[in-house]
Design a protein that fits this description.
Oligomer: single chain
Number of strands: 12
Largest sheet: 5 strands, antiparallel
Distance between the termini: 9 Å
Helix content: 25-40%
């Protein structure tokens, strides 16, 4: 058999997979495997489970457009800052009351950017963030809910809305094929395997799983004695490099089992 090693550049911004996947389609792929370090899992422990492992993502990039003016006369302006704040409050209420309570949906609003001076009402206020979920149907509902709330809130306040190109169901949930997950588990020592819940981050490997059967595993890097284990995307994040060889062994094990 033939094994292809893929090195995806710029995974965080999502510009790597649109180049890699068309190239792989020309080469012929039967199944795929990936591994991601996980700071909440004990160093050296490997988790390769069936089903949903990482969340899908709707990116949020919404700009409310009003009419700027002097801060002393808000009645002569249309303040997009109040509109953005009102929309976020309404979004939280809608999510709590319109999404099935048995489903997972997180609202990760990270940025509100509007204005630079204490006495100037800005023309625009931009909101950034993401919505995470484990079933595509929930993601589509969340996207519709987001746009409905923003459109109607903007109309109430006399603003208009602009949506960035990533305000869509950008990444599907990462869902492991049970057969491929079993292959990966068989390719490594049983004593390495451990339990881990689903991870709420999102991963471009889901794009590969939309094309081919495969599995994503987690490699634990939490080592309190070394000082690793801080949450991902955190300034204290660090890696226990002493266990990375196990990751290489997982790839080799999957390749060998798959070629059998």
């Amino acid at each position: 058999g033939r094994v292809l090693f893929c090195f995806e550049s710029d995974e965080e911004s999502g510009s790597g997979w649109p180049v890699l996947i068309p190239a792989l389609e020309k080469l012929g792929v039967d199944r795929c495997f990936a591994l991601h370090v996980l700071s909440s899992l004990e160093s050296g422990v490997v988790n390769i489970a069936d089903g949903p492992r990482m969340s899908g993502m709707v990116a949020v990039d919404v700009t409310f457009v009003g009419k700027g003016g002097h801060g002393s006369r808000p009645d002569l302006s249309v303040n997009p800052v109040f509109t953005a704040a009102a929309a976020l409050n309404q979004l939280a209420v809608a999510a709590a009351n319109q999404v099935d309570a048995n489903e997972t949906l997180t609202l990760g609003i990270t940025t509100i950017d509007g204005g630079r001076a204490f006495n100037v009402i800005p023309d625009r206020a931009r909101v950034l963030g993401s919505l995470r979920y484990f079933r595509p149907e929930v993601g589509e509902k969340a996207l519709g809910m987001l746009k409905s709330v923003c459109d109607h809130t903007a109309a109430i306040h006399g603003c208009t809305v602009e949506y960035g190109p990533m305000t869509r169901a950008y990444l599907a949930p990462t869902v492991n094929d049970p057969t491929c997950a079993a292959l990966a588990r068989r390719g490594i020592p049983e004593e390495w395997l451990g339990e881990s819940g689903r991870w709420y981050a999102s991963e471009t490997f889901s794009k590969y799983l939309e094309k081919w059967p495969g599995a994503l595993g987690f490699l634990g890097i939490r080592n309190e004695e070394l000082g690793t284990g801080a949450e991902h995307h955190n300034e204290r994040f660090d890696v226990d490099e002493s266990v990375l060889w196990r990751g290489a062994a997982c790839y080799a094990g999957f390749a060998l089992e798959a070629m059998k």
